[in-house]
Amino acid sequence: MKEIDFSGCPIMSSLSGERIKNLFEKIEFKINTYKKGDIVARQGSPCKYLNILLAGSVKTEMVAENGSVMTIENIAAVRPLASAFLFAENNIFPVDVIATDFCRIISIPRDEVLKMFQKDAGFLESYIKYNSNKTQFLSTRLQTLNIKTIKGKLAFYILEGLNKNLVLNPGTNKFRMDRNQTELAKYFGVSRPALARCISEMEGENIILIEHKEVKVINRAALQNLLG
Amino acid sequence: MKEIDFSGCPIMSSLSGERIKNLFEKIEFKINTYKKGDIVARQGSPCKYLNILLAGSVKTEMVAENGSVMTIENIAAVRPLASAFLFAENNIFPVDVIATDFCRIISIPRDEVLKMFQKDAGFLESYIKYNSNKTQFLSTRLQTLNIKTIKGKLAFYILEGLNKNLVLNPGTNKFRMDRNQTELAKYFGVSRPALARCISEMEGENIILIEHKEVKVINRAALQNLLG
DNA sequence: ATTAATCTGTCATAATTGTTACACAAATAT
DNA sequence: ATATTTGTGTAACAATTATGACAGATTAAT
Q1: Among the three residues B101, B129, B157, which one is the final residue of a domain in this structure?
Q2: Same domain, B46 and B87
Q3: Is it the case that residue B181 has pLDDT exceeding 60?
Q4: Nearest nt to A195, CA vs C1'?
Q5: Which of A24-33, B14-23, B87-96 has the highest mean pLDDT?
Q6: pLDDT > 70: percent of chain B
Q7: Which residues of B fall within a CB distance of 8 Å from A228?
Q8: What's the CA gap between A102 and A105, in Å, rounded?
Q9: B147 CB inside 7 Å of strand D
Q10: Which of A89, B8, B60, B165 is in Cβ range 3.0-4.6 Å of B175 for a Cys bridge?
């Protein structure tokens, strides 16, 4: 086990090396390597192992029967692959997983993972935490996308950012965005000029004031109204 | 324990009564009742317990400081409340939870839940499965919403429905929707007439044929093109 | 079988957003 | 300091979608 480096892996990083060693004792697993272009997993095939990308990078693609392809995600080590699918009702890979580099991937059978959960509550907690965080993240993204107007999305984003900042700076009406306008437009899935227009309109209506990445909320009630 | 009925609860229903009884042995928990209008949990308060709604119903709301309110969800027994937040990094309730009826809610401390995981791998598996299913569900919803055009959403929806049906009826190019046009429009978050127009255009282009809830795919490649 | 309710197809108009383009500001590199 | 890149504000026009409205088709209820 000493040759496996899980540092940076969201479901392992909280565990010490010693603990990881114990965790894998008597656990069956295999490590495969893939070269660039190899297919790691096929869309539609059952997901029976916890696969963790130890080194290299992969991309995930959806492939249709007529051959048309859509890239979904690029993933770099160290991260689990499709961890939400291992235990789901419908445990098949929703995508093709293709190596975009030389890769090492560890595969731990489902039942062995359950044993590992029983053995080390910390590992179990990390795994659940990882999935919980993901669920939370997706919920928030979904809320954002579910708002139809750009002004609404922006209002939601600003109120959210303000709330996060409130924990550190109680009573403030300012916060700093971690995205520029172009990135924000992509995040919302809208065009950049349309976002700029909305910002300038909302500034004109004295609701907010944005300078660089600094957002100042002037009329909070108006922001709230844009949500519903 | 005999008075607690978990039937229909997604994280308990796979377990027999005997097994549930064992599971709760030596486990600390409390059961509270709430009458209509009572606040079960406050937005922003830490989520330290696994709360399962045993009887009654609740609604979840986001409340702003100026008092404006937005209802997020209505939940009826038997279901866990905010199960994704118990183990997440940021374990605070994102919403107010308010009883809309007489309610009984069991609260099991976080650490006790971990003990229960260690005790019964089946319970652990159900819990993880529940969260996994949720992640999967949200991912799919996110993909749908991420497609900008109505035709694209429809194409995605149809291809997905076809794929699900393929497992039962290999080689088919038909499937039956479980929503009518009005419901589908709501699901997509678009207006009903706009959806109807897209359907009729796609029928005119000989891509699909929809009769009642029966969908027939004529030109699958064209559907694929609408995704990207 | 008839009525009532719901669902569907369609239209004109308004509102919102995307596209493309350009000038200028800000940040970064040389 | 200057050049280069990247980000921002703005505009005209095109495309898409929402809104509201209506008639006909389908389904459910009596």
Answers
A1: B129
A2: yes
A3: yes
A4: C17
A5: A24-33
A6: 93
A7: 68, 70
A8: 10
A9: no
A10: B165
For residue B36, give how far its alpha carbon lies from the nearest alpha carbon of chain A (Å).
Answer: 25
With CB atoms and an 8 Å threshold, state whether B132 touches A84: yes
Q: Is a pLDDT exceeding 70 seen at residue A172? A: yes
Residue type, B122: G
Q: A162 and A97, same structural domain?
A: no
Mutate to test the interface with B, among A47, A132, A225 (most CBs of B within 10 A): A132
- Judgement on whether residues B32 and B123 belong to the same structural domain of the protein: yes
Whether CB of B190 is under 7 Å from strand C: the answer is no
A71 in contact with B, Cβ within 8 Å: no
Same domain assignment for residues A183 and A149: yes
B104 and B156 assigned to the same domain: no
Peptide bond into A97 cis (omega under 30): no
pLDDT score of B179 more than 80: yes
Residue B21 pLDDT class (50, 70, 90 cuts): very high
Of B118, B134, B126, nearest to B12 (Cα)? Answer: B126
Q: Is the pLDDT confidence value at B12 over 70?
A: yes
Q: How far is B91 from chain A (nearest CA, A)?
A: 10
Is residue B10 situated within a structural domain? no
Residue B138 domain-assigned (yes or no):
no
Q: How many helices (H) and strands (E) does chain A have?
A: 8, 11
DSSP tally for chain B: helices H, then strands E: 8, 11
Give a yes or no: residue A116 inside a domain.
Answer: yes
Total tally of structural domains belonging to chain A:
2
The whole-number pLDDT of residue B14 equals 83
